[in-house]
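Today's session is about reading a structure prediction critically. Students often jump straight to the picture, but the first step is always the sequence itself: look for stretches that repeat, for charged clusters, for runs of hydrophobic residues. Only then move on to the predicted structure, which in these notes is written as discrete structure tokens rather than atom positions. Here is the chain we will use throughout the hour.
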Amino acid sequence: MQPIRFTALFFTCLVLTVSACAPLPETAPVAAPVDTPAPALTATPAPAPSATSTPAPGTCLVGDWQISPQTVQSLLVDLTSVTSLQVMEGALFLKFDGTNFAYHANGLALRSAFMDSFLDAKADIMIDGTYLVEGDTLRFTQLNAANQLYEWVLVKGDYVRPFTGSSPVVPFEIAKEGNYVCDDKSLQLTLRDRGEEITIDLIRVD
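Below is the predicted structure for this chain, in token form.
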């Protein structure tokens, strides 16, 4: 029985020797870390500035304007050519709508010299037409005039009585052109006609 035991022992040693001498399995190489590029930044375009439209010439004219008491008398003298004309009460207005204009007043109380006394009257004024704006220049085209003078009264000191004579004819003729300067609240017109120039101030009322 000894040869079998020796043979078994020899075989066992041989197996152990082969196992010890067998090459170790190769270890898979570890890949070096790869730098991942940062995502590219996308530039956000700045918002485009909003377009600011330039107002059309004469835009600030549109509206209804009251001619100031300080200059309304000068304007009426220019309109009527009656140098002694005075405004006793009431207001005169000038309206622009972008194409048309209108001088208008109701119940305007006027006074003018008459010989050695005065004549008082009430006036309803309506003069309209079209206008054209060229830069700061205005050009007027009068189309209609519907003016009424009524309730004529003769005044001489304390003596006041209705005027029974023929009522004077008072023409109203507007200037054909002028220049203007205006903003949201005020307007200044420099009117030229028959070689003369007059400046009037107006206040917006609409």
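Discussion point for the tutorial: Confidence is low (pLDDT under 50) at residues 1-22.
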